[in-house]
Amino acid sequence: MKSIAIVILNWNGKHYLEQFLPIVIENTCAENFSVRVVIADNGSTDGSVEWLEKKYPSLQTIVLDKNYGFTGGYNKSLKQIQSDYYLLLNSDIEVTKGWLEPLLTFMENNPRAAGCMPKLLSYNNKEKFEYAGAAGGYLDMFGYPFCRGRILNVVEEDRGQYDNEQEVFWATGACLVVRSKEYWAAGGLDDDFFAHMEEIDLCWRLKRRGYSIWCIPQSVVYHVGGGTLSSDSPRKVYFNHRNNLVMLLKNLSRQSLIPVITFRLGLDVLSAIGYAITGKPSFVWSVFKAHIHFYKNLAKNIRKRRAFKNPKISLYKYSILIQFFVRRRTKYSQLPTR
Question: 2.30.29.30, 1.10.560.10, 3.90.550.10, 1.10.520.20: which CATH number matches 2-117+158-217?
Answer without folding.
Answer: 3.90.550.10
